[in-house]
Design goal:
Blueprint lengths: L1 H5 L1 H31 L13 H7 L4 H29 L4 H23 L6 H24 L3
Helix pairs in contact: 2-4, 2-5, 4-5, 4-6, 5-6
Length: 151
């Protein structure tokens, strides 16, 4: 483990993996914030202490809440593959500069994607950031498979 922590590429991966994980974790509180400030709840137990009239007003969807939830779901679809591919890629011995480029672009794309989702920026901003992150993950996968392909 000590040797691994001395590997510059692995340290870079760990840094950027931690950043995107924290970003993904922050989407939960963002969703809660929108639920509370927009008065939009999806579960009966969330409004159990309210009157029947209040429940009818609060048990509804709101575009901001839906957007935050979709953003979080999209994070799961992208960050989890980045974790697995990125870890294997980092362990395959890539050049530090190339690895940093991959990790930084992916992280920036995911952060921008969240802002584009939450702030409802016009397309193609969100779509481009999504595809950029996916392209980076595919690039790491291609580099990894070109080094270690074994059937």
């Amino acid at each position: 483990m000590t040797q691994l922590m001395e590997n510059e590429v692995f340290k870079a991966f760990a840094t950027y993996a931690a950043i995107v994980t924290l970003k993904m974790m922050l989407m939960g509180p963002v969703t809660v914030y929108f639920r509370l400030t927009r008065g939009s709840f999806s579960n009966e137990e969330d409004v159990a202490r309210k009157s029947e009239e209040e429940k009818k007003k609060l048990l509804r969807s709101h575009p901001d809440v839906e957007r935050a939830q979709r953003c979080h779901h999209n994070d799961l679809e992208n960050i989890i593959p980045f974790f697995f591919i990125g870890l294997l890629y980092a362990l395959s011995g890539p050049e530090l500069a190339t690895a940093l480029l991959h990790f930084r672009i992916f992280t920036a794309a995911r952060i921008f994607h969240s802002f584009a989702y939450i702030l409802a920026l016009p397309q193609p901003s969100r779509g481009l950031s999504y595809f950029l992150g996916m392209l980076v993950t595919f690039s790491m996968a291609y580099n990894l498979l070109s080094k270690v392909f074994f059937l």
